[in-house]
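pinging the channel bc i need a second pair of eyes. not urgent but kinda urgent?? the chain im working w is below, pasted from the shared doc
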Amino acid sequence: MKLDILADPICPWCYIGKANLDRALSRRPDHPFIIEWHPFQLNYDMPPEGIDRQTYMEAKFGGREGALAAYTPVAEAAEAAGLDIAWEKMTRVPNTLSAHCLIHWAGLEGRQTAAVSALFESYFKRGEDIGEPEVLVEIADRIEMDRDMVARLLASGADRDEVAARDAHARKRGVTGVPTFIVGERQAVPGAQPPELWDRVLDEVIGT
């Protein structure tokens, strides 16, 4: 059964949502899900070079206090999911179109989830700018993709229009935030749901 996931590798709720899903699936190694990741940029109009994270946060949430208030529940949910996010290392908010292209190419080689995991770790644990081609090439190398091929694809701008069009298509279909999980091409599960919800979903799926 397909489990389609719309996510962005700089989205902390997507990182948390994946961790919660992973926890549930680890308890059910016989689960029927075939997972496919789909592009959705939190900031599709982000400048190619990205922007300073503090500037971004304060502009988005109405100043420093607003940013702190907005991220308190994120930090609490990350801790509950067993994730240690290195907030102090994250100095920039990158444009993620190239990162989504890497996920697309990884999917062609059966390494899509590995790419998503590596991107999350690169951004949330190392504070790396995953909009930079050099960083993406290193990530590709870590998941055993051909680094030289990925470097050439990034330099050529390959598949950028296609990936951007898929992002736009999701918005036209009504997706307004991520993560969004679509079970069996019919049931949408929005947000970073706890493992217990996925336990119930799996019970329903396996019981049918």
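so The first strand starts at residue 2 and ends at 7. and Residues 33 and 73 are 29 Å apart (CA to CA). — does that match what u expected or am i reading it wrong
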